[in-house]
Amino acid sequence: MNQSLPRLGRISKAVIPAAGLGTRFLPATKATPKEMLPVVDKPAIQYVVEEAVAAGLSDVLMITGRNKRPLEDHFDRNYELEEALSRKGDAERLSKVQEPSDLATMHYVRQGAPRGLGHAVLCAAPHVGDQPFAVLLGDDLIDPRDPLLARMVEVQEREGGSVIALMEVEPSQIHLYGCAAVEATAEGDVVKVTDLVEKPGPGEAPSNYAIIGRYVLDPAVFGTLRETEPGRGGEIQLTDALQKLASDEKIGGPVHGVVFKGRRYDTGDRGDYLRAIVRLACEREDLGPDFRAWLRRYVSEEM
Ligand code: G1P
């Protein structure tokens, strides 16, 4: 089979790596997975699963590890709680409890050893098989009003190969991300990726295009990951495997980037996590009006 031809067929599988230790949020994450930290009143991970579902991906595989049982419980039924709420006639809260378990078909696999994002994605190989699939990183929260993943799926289905999400960042911030060298295409929000560097050191960044945590990947990435040596931080880096794909289209087709200009929050960073909560709370119909009024008073009187 000519690997460079687009693989057709609806993309239906999403992979969410969630095995990280969450050390930036200790002690909150000592016994609770960081993915379960609430953003307003929903755990961060639920936003990510909702985003996958909104883009048409209803089969979700989470890559977990030790101490991640609460993730499985969250997306499962809780009959005791449901029973108690139905007895009280509290339909609103009952639907909030049922929502996460009705969202998608959930699957789980454990990563075992923490060998990096590339290794986590490789753990998805038996489940994914030979179809393109999406990867969503739990630390990146994309505002539901700025659909990114659906656009990436559209570009992948047309172009084949792999598609990554890119965002322009301040040059001083690029060392925190994977960085892409790109060429323009006829579409303003789509670029061709020609090279990738994971967390470039000073003077190493080919651009200020940062990879944000959304990918639609050709399954050829699995073969490439198997051959990828540990890179930055001694870990098997997804960026390094994608670099190989970008440098040789014969392996798994081209690599494109969708340039995102919408709202993104990094819930893996404490400051950004707080900003995400404030912004999303302000915009909520139920909580927003009171919260905004309080925030205005707080800022003018106490800051
Ligand atoms: C990972 C990727 C990096 C990407 C980032 C986006 O890094 O390795 O290429 O830019 O996610 O959030 P991490 O932040 O997990 O260290």
Task: Please summarize what this structure is.
The protein is of the alpha/beta class and 303 residues long. The chain is 36% helix and 22% strand.
Give the CATH superfamily of the largest domain: Spore Coat Polysaccharide Biosynthesis Protein SpsA, Chain A
User: How confident is the prediction overall: mean pLDDT?
Assistant: 94
Residue stretches low in confidence (pLDDT < 50, at least 5 long) are 1-5
Number of strands: 13
Count of discrete structural domains: 2
Which compounds are bound in this model? 1-O-phosphono-alpha-D-glucopyranose
CATH class of the largest domain reads Alpha Beta
Q: Class by helix and strand content?
A: alpha/beta
Second CATH tier, the architecture of the largest domain: Alpha-Beta Complex
Q: SSE string, helix = H, strand = E? A: EEEHEHHHEHHEEHEEEEHHHEEHH
How far apart, in Å, are the first and last alpha carbons?
64 Å
Kindly identify the CATH topology of the largest domain.
Spore Coat Polysaccharide Biosynthesis Protein SpsA, Chain A
